[in-house]
Structures are given as structure tokens and as C-alpha cells.
Amino acid sequence: MSKKKLVLINPRSHHRVGFLIDKESRYPPLGLGIVAALTPDDWEIILIDENFQNFTFEDADLVGITSFTSTVKRAYEIAASYRTHNIPVVLGGIHASMLPEEAEQFVDVVAIGEAEITWPDILFDFENNQLKKRYSGNLITLDKVPQATHNLFHKEYEIDSIQTTRGCPMVCEFCSVPGFNGKTYRTRPVENVLAEMETMRTDRFFFVDDNIVGYNTAARNHAKAIFNGMIDRGIKKDWFCQASINFGQDEELLDLAYKAGCRLVLIGVESEKTDALQSMNKRSNLKVGVDNYQKIFSIIQQHGISVLGTFIMGLDTDSVNDIKNRAEYIINSNIDAIQISILTPFPGTKTYNDFIKEGRLTATNYPEDWEKYWGGDIIIRPAKMSALEFKQVLQEAAIKIYDSKRLMQLMLRTLRTTKNPKTALWAFSANAHYHNMVFETDIKKHIKLNKVFGRS
Ligand code: SF4
Predict the structure, then answer these.
(1) pLDDT tens for each residue of 170-223
(2) Whose C-alpha lies nearest to ligand 1, atom 3?
């Protein structure tokens, strides 16, 4: 009997093209790898991944698309081409989960929440010719997460992805994680994570968890058990992760993380000002205190790990001077790599609801305008400055922060503080992705860093 054919699609937003110049800035669509793992063997599975190839129509029995808010317009375009052929399209991911009423105008089925619950039901109903408009379910315990099918991902991905936890109890007002993955921090069994890790082809990867160390001892012990397991099993891969600032307050954890291959940690710094943190309910940073940031970053670096600090520009507490001061703070700080993003109210967050209520969103021609919801476009009316003033001060800040000479100096400083060339290169690469976006050039084409550090 011939197999049924499932086409999975990872759409791309054209706004991210500059960011994606460098292959190292592309990460595989882990959610689709999980969907593939949940699909029985009597299906043939094809992945069309626009991180590497533009979509061209591929015949299918069923189509599954994932999307963020910034890629949903593209997802709807692709869905339309299948719907004209009467091929059913399922849309999942965070945007469809937050705005199912919108999504169901463009696709046949909306999968809300986590695929482990919805996908088996969707396949069952497809086979029985009784597909419904929507599927949703309660949050699962993470022992039910299958090993993602990593060999489905495009072979040119240089950095793979894996997940060990879901959910966050912190409820920062701008963040869609608690709305999507819930407010309970759930952990995956350590053995399952390690077994999946051993199936990954690349020697570098990204822990996609929003906070790999959580907010209590049990969560930190879970992370330590994973790091210990990697060391015991001899899994020799370099990686980066995202964590709250308390990552730097546990030296045993830092030792283990480094030995297990951690080279970079992304920390949501957001702002150097207490009132700004209060305005967004960033409790983890408030607990640590802004005056302790630099000390904590320095401890992380002493353990051989570099710090990628993320900052938000355009908060309601921000004036033109505040943006200038934040840029100065960043330039004078000991942070190794910097991501600045423009405050972007994402559907499903309190920030989004507030901006809608106050009529301060300026990109509301949906779905076209969803492409602008990626952190690099001004789509708000700022509270304390005009949009033009904001744009100008932001451009000045970005040009200073991502200046190529400065980035080279930063890399050498990271090398001095962490004493690890690979760590310095990870931090530089992160900066290079943002540089490419700001200047629309590939910094690495001019600086042959991979040769300098001998990476093949
Ligand atoms: S920004 Fe981080 S700490 Fe805040 S709610 Fe989101 S995941 Fe949790």
C-alpha cells in the first residue's frame, strides 16, 4: 500500500533575511521535528524549510505549517496554494494558538497549543474524513515529548535545537511564553533529553528552553543532571542556552555547564533601570538588582561562558535620553554580545492588550502587518517620544553598538575574560548576526574568523 504524504512547512519572514545571511543564525523548526516524530510510519514526510529554499508547491495528502507571528502572513500565502487544490492545511505554533479566530479564516485546521495532544487526534480525524476546525488540549507532562526527528532537518543547518523544559511562572508583561506554554515550569526526563541529544548530527546546538535553569532548586538540579549526563556520556558538543540572570549565581551549575559545552548564555537584561523593569514586571531581574548585573556577568565569564544580553527599546518609561543612556550602558558594560529589540506587543500578552486598548499600535493591517512583529520594526506609538525621534535615536544606538571595529574589540575582550577562543567566537557570531541586520552586509565575509580559530 502506498504511503500517505505529509508536507511540513517552515515559512520565512522576508524581514529576517539580513539576520539569516549567516547560516549560524538559522535554527531548525523543532516543533515540526516533533510533529514528524508523532506521525506513524505509514506516512511519507517531506519538510519544506524556507530557511534554505523558497517554497514551491509539492503535492500532499495533508499539509502542516508552523509559524510565529512574523511568519504567519507567509504561512497564510502558502496555505492558500494548497487550499485551491483541496488539500487540507493544518496551522500550529504560537500565533495560531493565540489568534485561532484569525487563523481559521486562512487554513482548514488550527492546532492550538502543544502538538503532542493535538497531532494524533488530527491524524485520526483526517483518516476518518472528519477533520474539525480546531484542536486543543491541556498542557502535557514532558515525559510525553517524543525525540524530535532531527534527520528531517536540512543538512546545512550548522546548529541544531533541543528542548528540556517548557513554561514560565514569571509572567513578564511583554512575553508570550506563559500564555503559550503555561505558567508551570515543566521538565523533561533527563534520560529522554540525553538520548535525543545523541541523535543530533551537528556538533553545536541550542537549548531552546526559555529558561534552562528555572527559578528554584529543583529546576537547577534538573539542568545540572542534564549537564552531568552529557559529561558522563561523553557528548562533546558546544551549545548556547537562554536563562534568567540567576544562572550566574550558582557556581556549581556554571562549572558543569561549561564542562558540558556551554559557550554562550542569553540573558534577558531588558533594561538597566529599576522603574523600567517594574513597568514590565521583570521580577527575576528586580530580585537580583540592576546594580549586581555586571558582577554576575563577570562570574559567568570567569567560568568560560560568554553573555548575550538582550535589551528592549521603546518601553513606556523610555524617553529619547533613556534610549541614549541604555546604548551608553551597553557600550560601557562587560556584556559580550548584545541583542537590542524594539518593544513589540505580541498577541496573547498583556502588553498587546494594553496597546490595543490605548490605540497605540501603528501596524494593524492584518495579516500583512504581522510581518512587522519581529522586534526590528517600530509598530508602536511610544509614550514619551515621537515615533520619528525613536527611530532616529535607535538608529544612532544600533550603529554605535554594532560597529565592526567595536565588535572585534569585544571579541578580544571575551577571549581575555573567558580564556576560551570558541567562547569568543560564539559571542562574536551572535553580534555578527545583528550587525548583518543593521548594516545588511555579512561581516564574516570581510573577517575570516573561522580561519583564525581553525574551525572547519
Ligand atoms: S521573559 Fe523570560 S522570565 Fe519573563 S515570562 Fe518570558 S520566559 Fe518568563
Answers:
(1) 989 999 999 999 999 999 999 999 999 999 999 999 999 999 999 999 999 999
(2) 170
C-beta of 67 in contact with ligand 1 (< 6 A)? no
* Max Cα distance, the chain (Å): 68
Strands of 4-10's sheet in order across: 43-49, 4-10, 62-66, 89-92, 109-112, 134-136
What is the C-alpha separation between 290 and 99, in angstroms, rounded? 35
Instruction: For each of the domains in the chain, give its residue range(s) and CATH number, in order of start.
Output: 4-136 (3.40.50.2300), 159-343+380-452 (3.80.30.20)
Instruction: Record the cell numbers describing residue 398, joined without a space.
Output: 544600533
Q: From CA 276, how far away is CA 181, in angstroms rounded?
A: 25
Average pLDDT over residues 423-442: 86
Tell me, what DSSP letter sits at residue 280? H
Residue 20 sits at the vertex; the CA angle it makes with 16 and 23, to the nearest 5 degrees, is: 165
Task: Please state the rounded mean pLDDT for residues 149-170.
Answer: 96
* Residue to probe by mutation, ligand 1, list 170, 186, 213, 281, most atoms within 8 Å of CB: 170
Atom of ligand 1 lying closest to residue 242 CA: 2
Which amino acid type is present at position 256?
L
For ligand 1, the distance from its centroid to the CA atom of residue 211, given in whole angstroms, is 8
Separation of alpha carbons 374 and 13, rounded Å: 9
Residue 284 beta carbon below 6 angstroms from any ligand 1 atom: yes
Q: How far is the CA of 66 from the centre of ligand 1 (A)?
A: 22
Closest CA to 262 of 218, 310, 301, 215: 301
The answer, yes or no, to whether the previous bond of 347 is cis (omega within 30 of 0) is: no
Interatomic CA distance for residues 303 and 73, integer angstroms? 43
This prediction's pTM? 0.94
Helix (H) or strand (E) holding 272: none
Ligand 1 mean position, distance from CA 281 (Å)? 10
Choose which residue among 163, 166, 210 to substitute to test ligand 1 binding: the one with the highest number of ligand atoms within 8 A of its C-beta: 210
